Amino acid sequence: MTKRRKWEPVAALLLVLLIGLWLALGPDSLRKLPSRDNASLQSLRIADTRGALEASRSPDGTHTFRILTREGHASPDLTESQIRDLFGQAALDQATAPSPNRVFKLLNITTWTSLVWIGIGLAGQLAFSCRFLVQWLVSEKERRTVVPESFWWMSLIGGIALFAYFVWRQDPIGVLGQSSGLVIYSRNLRLIYKARRRASRIPLAD
Q1: How would DSSP label each residue in 127-190?
Q2: What are the φ/ψ torsions at residue 50 (nearest 5 degrees)?
Q3: Contact predicate 146/135, CB 8 Å
Q4: pLDDT in tens, 6-62
Q5: C-alpha dihedral over 132, 192, 141, 178, to 10 degrees?
Q6: Model pTM?
Q7: What Rg do the C-alpha atoms of the chain give, in angstroms?
Q8: Is the C-alpha dihedral spanning 115, 119, 124, 126 positive or negative?
Q9: Domain C-terminal end among 46, 64, 99
Q10: Domain hosting residue 171, numbered range
Q11: Number of structural domains found in the chain
């Protein structure tokens, strides 16, 4: 008798993924800032208030700025010298630079180095996600719950990558979550290899 494939877990996985992506990207796109036409925006956070620094280019090549918040507040026009005094020359240079490419804008980064770190974090998350896929496939094949050795290796590799990524992001919650995991994954691998060594020393029965 042919075993019927279980598609419900796959459908549930895709549903959760789509909901997560919508929550991460969708609501932000609905919160429109009161920006002017043809103005560029740079993300800005002051305490717990989020918004953007708007830069509008005049025909004579100078820029005027406004600070916009998600609550709908827009500051009076600010000059380049005022922005320099408030945030420094580096912030002024970023605000007046050409608009970043779409990838940079989507990922909320400004440099290629940051893109490398995003890649590290993405690779770690991919390893984390695939470990459950591997565990699920092995369990379906055995018709019982099985945790293969590869599950722990993928957990360790993904955990190291995500730990480094969260350190770069200066995200203490992410660092805390991965710290305990790294110890647990390493310990499980050590127990597996210790059991394998003990088994190799046991003489085979005649």
Answers
A1: HHHHHHHHHHHHHHHHTS----HHHHHHHHHHHHHHHHHHHHHT-HHHHHHHHHHHHHHHHHHH
A2: -110, 150
A3: yes
A4: 666 667 767 876 776 666 555 554 456 778 877 877 778 888 888 888 888 888 888
A5: 0
A6: 0.59
A7: 25
A8: positive
A9: 99
A10: 111-199
A11: 2
